[in-house]
Amino acid sequence: MEINEQKRQKFIENAGKRVNNVLHDIQILEPMARSNNYDFTKADVEEMFTAMQETLNNAKEEYYKKFEMKAKSERKAFVFGQTISNVNNMVKEAISNAQNETENKEIQNDIEQSFEEQNAEVINEVENNAEVSAE
User: Fold this and answer.
1) Euclidean distance between CA atoms 78 and 86, whole angstroms
2) How does pLDDT run across 50-105, given as a tens digit for each residue?
3) Nearest-CA neighbor of 126 among 51, 53, 42?
4) Cβ(36)–Cβ(133) under 8 Å?
5) Where along the chain do its domains lie?
6) What is the chain's mean pLDDT, rounded?
7) Rounded-to-10 torsion of CA 131, 125, 19, 60
8) Band of the pLDDT at 127, cuts 50, 70, 90?
9) How much is the pLDDT for 74?
10) Are 60 and 130 in contact (CB under 8 A)?
11) Is-contact 72 32, C-beta < 8 A?
C-alpha cells in the first residue's frame, strides 16, 4: 500500500486539529464534575461516557475499513511457477492480518478497560464530593 505523502501531510494537519478540538471538548467536561453548579446521577455519567465511547469506536472502525478495502482491491497477477509461493505469501499475510486484528482488539479492550476505570474513579470522586457537600 503506497502512501501519497502530500495527502498524508494534509491528513496529519487536519486530523491533528480535529483531535485537539475533541480533546479540548472532553477536557472542559471535567470541571463540571467538580462544580457545585451541577447535579447528576451515576446513570447520567454512564450514559454520557457510553455515547462518547461508542462514537469513538465507530470512527475507529471507519478508519480500519480503508485498510480492509485496499487489501481486497489490490490486483493479483498470475505468473507460472510462482503459484505456490503466492499461496504461501497469501497464507502468511492472512496470518499476519489475523494477528494484527487480535492485537487491535486487545488494544481496544485495554483502552475500554482504562476508560471504565477512569469512569469509576470519576464516579467515586463525584460521590465523595457529594458526601462532603451534604455534610
Assistant:
1) 9
2) 999 999 999 999 998 887 776 666 666 666 666 555 556 666 677 777 777 777 77
3) 42
4) yes
5) 1-38, 40-134
6) 81
7) -110
8) confident
9) 62
10) no
11) no
**Nearest alpha-carbon partner for 123 in 47, 25, 16:** 47
pLDDT of residue 82: 61
Q: 3-class secondary structure for 83-96?
A: HHHHHHHHHHHHHH
- Cell 480500519 identifies what position? 64
Residue-by-residue DSSP string for the chain? ----HHHHHHHHHHHHHHHHHHHHHHHTTHHHHH-TT----HHHHHHHHHHHHHHHHHHHHHHHHHHHHHHHHSPP---TT-HHHHHHHHHHHHHHHHHHHHHHHHHHHHHHHHHHHHHHHHHHHHHHHHHHHH-
Mean pLDDT of 112-116: 77
CA distances 10 to 34, 59, 61, 66, 125, Å, are 38, 19, 21, 17, 41
